[in-house]
Amino acid sequence: MKRAKKIMAVRWRCGSNSNCQWRKVNFLLEPKMKMNWSVKISGMTIGVILIAGIFMTSPAWGANKIIGPKQCSDSNCHKNVFDKLLFHPHETFFNEKYEKEGTKIAEKMNVKDHFEDQKCIKCHGVEVASTYPKVTEEEKGLFGIICETCHNPAEDWVELHDKKGKVPEAVQKGMRDTRNFYAWSKDCFSCHRGAKEEYFKAGHRLGEKFDLVQYSQGDFKHWVWSKEDKASGNLEDKLKIKTGKIWVAGEAFQVLFSTMRISEASGKGEYSEKNLDLLKKALANLQNVVKAIPAGNLDKLIAAALKVNADPGSAKGVLEEIKTLTQAYVNEIDASPLPSAKFASFPIPVESSYMRNKK
């Protein structure tokens, strides 16, 4: 007989008087995939029964070096970003209406253990279990997507990254170098456009609405201008250039990830056709881009992408070429000294302000 598994989650909860704080949520994963929740609020215990699959963590991150969002929030530098994280879809994805949606998808995929299955947790959850001295037992448990999901487990570099001249050493010790435009953009697409055919057939979204500008330049636009940028002035114009480059890169990545998803399909069908539609939309945008901003790598990328159709074989034939050209082009556009006027005619979306559960 299988034994029940005890799980501890940490959730940001707000009372009726808007008194928000971290609260431990204890629940028991039964062999029949049900969870008994016991949430302690102001001395009262409230029992709730939910289907398994709401919070997930990876065994690969288990005996890990993740120190958790509270360690970031205690910094004066990151407090503002942390406050937004608490109500953002990254942290609250499995709350409220998304709990039922996630559960149904997991059941259709025959996922037996949501807390260990890499199909789910690689994009939806992490566990704080570091032995870092400042991390208390109250801060340990399961979280949604947090700072370290994107910036990498911080135990080895947290004491370095905010010290002058120490960023290269922090990167060497594992901090993701977000100055690398290609790397951070690719990470976003890896999850937001990472749904395999199996996930799609179970009801998972493809990420049709994902746009790199709208999703990265809203609530989590937490980069800062350098002293050199501030000294040179005209930050509004610089912002237009930065946003324009991010949008162009996003369209190139859309071509790449649509090609990847088609290449993995079992054959022609709804999954490959929908991914082809996304590829065609991005391709049309890039064809307009290359008219305004000529680039050899973009010409080649467009030519390769035009060979892709709903047949997985067509995507497999050009996938490696498209991977190489996407990286070359994104690095090229990032380094190009372009005026903001070059991006004026593109359909760049308005920055998002996407918050949830802010009560």
Give structural notes:
This protein is of the alpha+beta class. The protein has 2 domains: 1-177, no CATH class; 178-353, no CATH class. Helices cover 45% and strands 12% of the residues. The chain has 15 helices and 6 strands. The strands form 2 sheets. It has a 4-stranded antiparallel β-sheet, with helices on one face. A two-stranded antiparallel ribbon has the order 5-6. α12 (235-264) runs antiparallel to α13 (270-292), α12 packs antiparallel against α15 and α14 runs antiparallel to α15 (312-335). It is globular and about 55 Å long. The two termini are 43 Å apart. Residues 1-9, 12-20 and 24-63 have low confidence and may be disordered.
